[in-house]
């Protein structure tokens, strides 16, 4: 409670925290509403996959540019602008639904624009959090924002279902649009502190290269990003694509996949709370080790451990994933020059997610050929071994708490 009180005492962090708690919940509402809308209109999972694919591709295509502009301009202003744009886009969806004029091509265009706007928002947010609290509270700020995301993961789908059943998908999109407008109004109250030395603005190409050089020159950064990318490919892709199928084969009901996901979600909430107080001496090395149980759990589930064992295992995995996420974001905030932080974050996002769309396709194809349980079991083992490679750089093993860059 002491750490929470310290955080809550900083006015700018309060406004940022509340704004993101509201808009993140709205995001989770619309994910469910979007699935229900497409299913209702066309009954085609291919159409839903196309809409989500266009959103993801747009996000990845623009995220590096988002990082450059977030390092050039006041970050809270970029977030405010993208909140307004995303609010207007989903207000348009709501209007099209209400007037019964919605078509798949319109959703494709709108979600492509939405993904591009979010590509500018995310790097700005990562760079803004450290500007709203003192240096010694950056980890706690990351932990509390992580907790907000976890809670939204649970609350959003429940709210979405209630809204859609009570008032329809148009209302769900209208509520999401309203959350962005409220978030923008709260962000207008934020006055972030200056952090680091300002750098002169150069060409877009040069600043992209500068961001890449910030990543390339630090082995602890680029190796960790590469390891995360392969872990998502080997473990997370099978978890998402094959989870329900494996749950049916091993536990007799695909719905039990939801219980496993809920246990991991509960663990991430616990992990975020732990990160408010736990400051290990070597956070990055420990955090990498703590992500390994997630990969191993998938292997154990695939070979048939009982659900009663898998659920507490999911909680443990969630704790580890949350702690790594908080410690990783804190390490970047403490050791990357503030003027380049958003660009490094954008390279982190792009690098980590680059193989995931491929993984979704490959995992599905492999499962058709050799079986879902075999793919999940093998993917989990491979991912666990690859994660260990993240400990190879000396800088990763020796990175300690506090500021100061080991590569300089």
Protein architecture, described:
This protein has 408 residues and is mainly α. It folds into 2 domains: 2-190, Growth Hormone, Chain: A (Up-down Bundle), CATH 1.20.1250.20; 209-398, Up-down Bundle (Growth Hormone, Chain: A). It has 16 helices and no strands. The protein has helices spanning 2-8, 11-41, 45-72, 75-98, 104-128, 138-167, 169-187, 204-216, 219-251, 256-275, 283-303, 307-335, 341-353, 356-370, 372-388, 394-398. α4 runs antiparallel to α7. It is globular and about 55 Å long. The two termini are 36 Å apart. 50% of the residues are buried. The mean pLDDT is 89.
Task: Jot down its keywords.
mainly alpha; 408 residues; single chain; 0% strand
Total number of strands: 0
Tell me the number of structural domains.
2
CATH architecture of the largest domain: Up-down Bundle
Q: Say which CATH homologous superfamily of the largest domain is assigned.
A: MFS general substrate transporter like domains
The ordered string of helix (H) and strand (E) elements is: HHHHHHHHHHHHHHHH
What form results from the Cα inertia axes?
globular
Report the end-to-end length measured between terminal Cα atoms: 36 Å
> Could you tell me the radius of gyration in angstroms?
21 Å
- Quote the CATH topology of the largest domain: Growth Hormone, Chain: A
Query: Which structural class do you get from the secondary structure elements?
Result: mainly alpha
Oligomer: single chain
User: Could you tell me the mean pLDDT?
Assistant: 89
Q: Kindly state the percentage of residues in helix.
A: over 70%
Low-confidence stretches: none
Q: Describe the largest sheet.
A: none
In DSSP terms (H or I, runs of 4 or more residues), the helix count works out at 16
CATH class of the largest domain: Mainly Alpha
Q: Approximately what portion of the residues adopt beta-strand conformation?
A: under 5%
